[in-house]
User: Which sequence fits this backbone?
C-alpha cells in the first residue's frame, strides 16, 4: 500500500538577514500571492514569521512613525493568513536583538545564530516572540498556541540550553534540522552533514538534535526535507540563474562582489562571480546537488524530482502515514508559476495531503504519526 504523505508547506517570512529589503516587495506582496494560490487549491499551510524582526520594529516605532505603519501592516498580514485557515508558528533571527535604525536602514551587530547566545538571553527572545504571536492571534481563536519552532538560519544544534528552553515554553515541535546542510563562514557555522535522522519524526538528544534520543523526549523534531537533484535539471536551473544574474548585473553596472545582489539568501556570504559560477556550473556535474526542499528556490522539474524522492523515502520507511516538512522563503521566490503548478499537482495527488504544523503536532501527540527513538 502506498503511504499517505502529509505535506507541511512552511514559509520563513522575513526581511534579508542584514535587515535590508523593501518589506512590501519581499514580504507583504509575496505573502498575498501565495495566499491566492493556496486558496485556489484549498491548501492550508504554515507561515513562520521572524518575530524578532517585528519586535524590533515595535521597540523603535515611537521614534520612527514610518516603522509603526509597516509593523501594523505586518500584524494585519499575519492575522489575515490566520483567518484564512493558515497556521502561524515561530521563526526567530536573533541578530535583530538591539538592531539600530539609522537614516532609513537597519544596522545589526548581533550574532546570526541563537546557539551563540547564553541561556537567559536566548530564553528571553523565545519567550517574547512566542508571546507576541499568541497575543496577536488568541483574540481570533482562544485555542491558538505557538507550539512549533524553526531557528533562524536553521541554527538549532548543538546547544546546552535551546531545546530545554523550547520545552519550558511549551514548544512541542522543532522543524530546524535540515539534513546535509553545512555552512562555515564568518557569519555562521552549522554542520548537519551527519544527522542521524533526516526524514522521519524523531526524539532529539536534548543537547544535540543531530542525534536521536534513546528515550521519548518532551519535544519532537520533524526534519526539514532535503533531496539530491539530478545533474541534468540542476545544470538547467543553474544556467538560467547565472544568465539572469549576469543580465541583472549588466543592467545595474554593479561591482561583482560585496554587492547586495551577491548576498542572495540568509545563509550565503558574499562571494565572487567566478566562485559562484564554479559552484553552480562545475560542481553539479561532478556530483548530484544537495537541496533543502525550498519551493521558492526550485524550478518545476526539480520540484517534481523532490516529490518523487519524498515518495521513494516514504515507501521505504514502511509507514502507512508520515509528515514531511518543506520550506519556502517568500523573499527569494524565483518562479511563482512553478509553485502554483506544484501546489495544483499535489492537491490532485491521492497519496498526499496538506497539513499545518499545529496538526502535525496533534498527530504526533495522539500517536497517529510514529516517532523514532534510537534502539
Ligand atoms: Zn529565516
Assistant:
Amino acid at each position: 500500500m502506498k503511504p499517505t504523505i502529509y505535506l507541511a508547506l512552511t514559509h520563513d517570512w522575513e526581511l534579508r538577514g542584514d535587515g535590508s529589503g523593501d518589506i512590501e516587495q519581499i514580504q507583504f506582496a509575496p505573502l498575498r500571492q501565495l495566499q491566492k494560490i493556496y486558496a485556489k487549491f484549498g491548501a492550508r499551510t504554515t507561515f513562520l514569521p521572524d518575530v524578532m524582526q517585528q519586535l524590533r520594529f515595535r521597540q523603535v516605532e515611537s521614534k520612527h512613525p514610518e516603522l509603526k505603519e509597516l509593523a501594523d501592516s505586518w500584524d494585519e498580514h499575519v492575522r489575515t493568513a490566520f483567518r484564512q485557515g493558515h497556521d502561524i508558528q515561530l521563526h526567530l533571527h536573533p541578530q535583530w536583538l538591539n538592531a539600530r535604525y539609522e537614516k532609513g536602514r537597519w544596522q545589526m551587530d548581533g550574532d546570526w545564530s541563537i546557539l551563540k547566545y547564553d541561556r537567559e538571553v536566548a530564553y528571553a527572545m523565545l519567550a517574547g516572540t512566542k508571546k507576541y504571536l499568541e497575543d496577536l492571534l488568541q483574540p481570533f481563536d482562544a485555542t491558538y498556541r505557538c507550539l512549533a519552532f524553526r531557528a533562524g538560519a536553521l541554527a538549532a544544534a548543538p546547544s546546552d540550553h535551546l531545546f530545554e528552553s523550547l520545552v519550558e515554553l511549551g514548544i512541542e515541535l522543532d522543524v530546524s534540522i535540515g539534513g546535509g546542510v553545512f555552512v562555515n563562514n564568518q557569519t555562521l557555522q552549522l554542520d548537519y552533514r551527519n544527522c542521524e535522522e533526516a526524514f522521519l519524526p524523531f526524539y532529539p538528544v536534548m543537547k544535540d538534535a543531530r542525534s536521536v534520543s534513546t528515550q521519548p523526549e518532551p519535544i519532537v523534531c520533524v526534519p526539514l526535507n532535503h533531496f539530491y537533484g539530478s545533474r541534468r535539471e540542476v545544470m538547467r536551473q543553474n544556467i538560467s540563474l547565472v544568465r539572469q544574474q549576469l543580465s541583472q548585473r549588466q543592467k545595474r553596472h554593479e561591482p561583482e562582489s560585496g554587492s547586495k545582489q551577491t548576498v542572495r539568501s540568509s545563509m550565503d556570504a558574499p562571494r565572487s562571480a567566478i566562485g559562484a559560477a564554479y559552484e553552480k556550473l562545475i560542481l553539479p556535474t561532478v556530483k548530484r546537488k544537495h537541496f533543502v526542499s525550498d519551493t521558492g528556490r526550485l524550478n518545476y522539474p526539480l520540484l517534481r524530482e523532490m516529490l518523487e524522492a519524498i515518495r521513494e523515502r516514504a515507501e521505504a520507511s514502511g509507514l502507512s502515514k508520515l509528515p514531511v516538512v518543506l520550506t519556502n522563503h517568500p523573499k527569494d521566490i524565483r518562479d511563482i508559476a512553478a509553485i502554483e503548478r506544484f501546489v495544483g499537482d499535489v492537491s490532485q495527488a491521492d497519496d498526499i495531503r496538506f497539513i499545518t504544523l499545529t496538526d502535525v503536532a496533534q498527530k504526533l501527540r495522539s500517536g497517529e504519526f510514529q516517532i523514532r527513538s534510537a534502539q
User: Anything to note?
Assistant: Residues 255-270 have pLDDT under 50 and may be disordered. Residues 12, 14, 50, 91, 93, 152, 266 surround zinc ion (CB under 6 Å).
